[in-house]
Amino acid sequence: MVGYAMNASHTVPDIPAHRVVNRNGVLTGKHHFGHPEEMQQLLEAEGLKIIQDQIQDFKTYFWDPNELEARL
Asked: What region holds the Methylated-DNA-[protein]-cysteine S-methyltransferase DNA binding domain (predicted)?
């Protein structure tokens, strides 16, 4: 569902739609960007390493909202 919401907003600069990947760190939404490599380029500009459309060391970057909730 997040992907559908982000699809409508990926051209808005303030919304980091390029950060929405599937649960395994695969760039499944890259076809929604203007250029096929744009999503990967944006992520790499943030320091992530991508190989074959998958974020390497994904556990390091994964945001788990349940962890935040547990701390509150």
From this structure: 1-47
